[in-house]
Amino acid sequence: MSGFRSPSPGLLALRPEAFGADPSGERMARIRRSPHFKDGVFQNPGGVARIRPSGSTLEFAKIFFDRDQRLHRAPSGTLPVHATTFADLAKPAATGLRLTWLGHSSVLAEIDGHRVLFDPVWGERCSPFPFAGPKRLHPVPLPLAELGPVDVVVISHDHYDHLDLPTIKALAGTDTLFAVPLGVGAHLERWGVSADRLRELDWHEATKVGGLTLTATPARHFCGRGLRNTQHTLWASWAVAGAEHRIYHSGDTGYFEGFKDIGAAHGPFDATMIQLGAYSEFWPDIHMTPEEAVRAHLDLQGGRPHGVLLPIHWGTFNLATHPWAEPAEWTKDATAEVGQAAAFPRPGEPFEPAGTLPVEPWWRAVSALVAHPWRRPEVPPVTSEATDDFDLAGER
After folding, report:
1. Does some domain include residue 124?
2. Does 16 map to a domain?
């Protein structure tokens, strides 16, 4: 990877380009040909994904901005970040597979001699505005330039907490490739990534990068980063297969039966990186609870505990009403109940799934809920029970 440029403070200023670009021309023609695009929008697997009706907005805001509730949605002390260095990451993985969780859904996966960077977000806020929007609960573990060369950057969808303008601008100055869902390439081209470095895929399509096969697999979510959401960019999870190892990154998704099909086609996996934070009763179909995430992991593995589950999409940005560390605590319980191995690294802490796993509940030392019983509620069956009037990708 050559010609690296670190994110510039000037890139954090609000510009029209922060909203990206709508697909057009041959890209839009390809979208219209997709079997997953119907009635002018991409369709979700498992039917319409919904959120609560607009009348619930005030109810959500009341909870989200309540002062007492807000105390639980951020660490009570300094969140520990692992002091990873370029030298640490330059050492080859002893087992051929090493993962470094960099916060939220950003993960560096070193797999069979190749380096894959998922959903890199180095920005201070996941927002088009430098002065508003969810702000980091911890600093980035290390500068982007210190990651070293990256073979391919994989993007799951175009929401601000997964597709970050200053980070992509910095990576645009390198020779890395980008694997993205259908339509997302329009954003990247506007931000300086040349078309010949894009691998833009529909669900079930695959591309080769060196000795890796990357397959865009279905997810249950939605898209959009502009003031007008045209629903013309796809969202995806990703299966990556090397010569010896297989890994899976869920992106953002609600639970759906398709995890079993993904596992049958591309698994079992040595590690899965599963979204299990920012869940809420206000949007039950588009994000997963810890219990749903563990169920998804087992589905991907053919119903048996296998590989290692790495929880992602928690602990970096405050995006829902649950306590900030609740996802990790509940996942620790849920995986123990089914005998599933799970890793709980500090941000920036590399680990090898076949080696010693980081399992210390480090979040308890900086949680305002240290005395909280942390008991999980009774969890109902995973169903789509919404009867609201706001549809996300599937009904107009």
Report:
1. yes
2. no
Number of folded domains in the chain?
A: 1
Place of tokens 């021309």: 25
Distance between CA atoms of residues 161 and 158, nearest Å? 8
pLDDT of 229: 59
The answer to whether 40 and 149 have CB atoms below 8 angstroms apart is: no
Q: What spatial distance separates the first Cα and last Cα of the chain, rounded to whole Å?
A: 43
Residue with token string 């081209």: 189
Cis-peptide into 268, omega within 30 deg: yes
Q: Flag whether 10 is in a domain.
A: no
Report how far residue 146's alpha carbon sits from residue 89's, in angstroms, rounded to the nearest whole number. 9
Give rounded-to-5 percent helix, strand, coil for the chain: 25, 20, 60
CATH number (domain holding residue 121): 3.60.15.10
The region that residue 240 occupies, defined by phi over 0 for left and psi between -120 and 50 for alpha, beta otherwise, is beta
- Spatial contact of 391 and 48, defined as CB atoms under 8 Å apart: yes
Q: State which amino acid sits at residue 321.
A: T
- CB atoms < 10 A from the CB of 228, how many? 7
- Strand 271-275: give its sheet, edge to edge: 206-209, 212-217, 237-241, 246-249, 271-275, 308-312
Distance CA 261, CA 369 (A): 39
Closest CA to 119 of 132, 105, 129, 131: 105
- Condensed to tens digits (0 to 9), the pLDDT of residues 350-367 reads 999 999 999 999 999 987
Range of the domain at 99: 21-392
DSSP 219-268: -S-----SSS----S---EEEEE-SS-EEEE--S----THHHHHHHHH--
* Residue 161 contacts residue 134 (beta carbons within 8 Å): yes
Which positions of the chain have pLDDT values less than 50?
1-14, 53-55, 370-374, 380-396
Dig out the tokens for 290 from the structure. 């810890």
Distances (CA, A) of 307 to 188, 249, 250, 302: 33, 13, 15, 11
Tokens of 148: 């070293």
Helix or strand or coil: residue 89? helix
Q: Look-up: residue for tokens 């607009």?
A: 54
